[in-house]
Amino acid sequence: MSKKTESPILQVRDLEVHFSIRKGLLQRQTGVVKAVDGVSFDIHHGETLGLVGESGCGKSTLGRAIVKLVEPTAGKILFNNKELVVGRRADERAMRKQLQLIFQDPYASLNPRMTVKTIVSEPLIVHKILPRQQIDARVAELLEKVGLDVSFMHRYPHEFSGGQRQRIGIARALAVNPAFIVCDEPISALDVSIQAQIVNLLADLQLELGLTYLFIAHDLSMVRYISDRVAVMYLGQLMELADRNEIYKNPLHPYTIALLSAVPTPDPVVEQNRRRIVLAGDLPNPSNPPQGCPFHTRCPLAIEQCHEEKPAFVEVRPKHFSACHRVDEAGAGTGLPKLI
Predict the structure, then answer these.
(1) Nearest to 260 by CA among 216, 245, 310, 195
(2) Where are the beta strands (DSSP E) in 227-312?
(3) Long-range CB contact pairs, 296-300, < 8 A, 24+
(4) Are the C-beta atoms of 278 and 269 separated by less than 8 Å?
(5) Cα-flanking dihedrals φ and ψ of residue 131, to 5°?
(6) Whole-number pLDDT of residue 49
(7) Which residues on adjacent β-strands are paired with residue 74?
(8) 3-class SS at 278?
(9) pTM above 0.70, yes or no
(10) Where does the pLDDT of residue 89 fall: very low under 50, low under 70, confident under 90, or very high at 90 and above?
């Protein structure tokens, strides 16, 4: 785990990413998909913020919006207290050197026609960071840093395993000396035996280089291992945000509790006596989200207020945020019955 500071490197304020739904011969807009709908949070220098949630809840879209691979519909993103504005080429180029992305699929994220040397050196050439005569040495240094042999630089992606390809993707992200990296489910496409190696590599690189991560994942146990804080996302909105130990020991939102109830534990006694929560129904359509709390259609604790009024995302306890009407506003959490 990293040595974080209280100074935010990234500030996201009321971020929205909506995609138009177009139909017919004239492609007229008939609706919008609210992939990210009013999300706000900070990430501190040297911190790892874990982002979890079901497939389709908007995690990857949020990460891509931060690095400007997807254009936000509304809201602000501030990096080192400077707003990232789309359209200013000089600002975008400088920003891209500071914010990088590690993709989920190591098979699809690498150009099969490029050698490892070409893939890793491309950011150096695009940003004119090094003269060409120094590029080979820099590529060799990056490969060694991620645990690959220098002789691999003249090979092609199809000659590597999934874990090795992901290491190549990490080396590419590190090439421009970024300060912030979005890790978009970097281990979900890998064998279980390889996942721990990649996570440990990311943790070691963070300590060595002073990196800050947004770590997007499904595996809640892995998120707890690598993250300083954990944010829980549902239907494009944040449901809960707290320190990793706090959110695992004292979850306040029914959705967080349901997610944690599905995480296996190595203690057979605890595992046998633990109550699992199976959520009814499927994730609602983001093009037609429910009124009120987005989770009320599946929540076992929903009341009439949940159907009519959207809960505010507020600090219920010190540094513990939640968006739920059933949580006591004084911070005791007594408004939410214990589900586990």
Answers:
(1) 245
(2) 229-234, 237-243
(3) 299/254, 299/255, 300/254, 300/339
(4) no
(5) -65, 155
(6) 97
(7) 16
(8) coil
(9) yes
(10) low
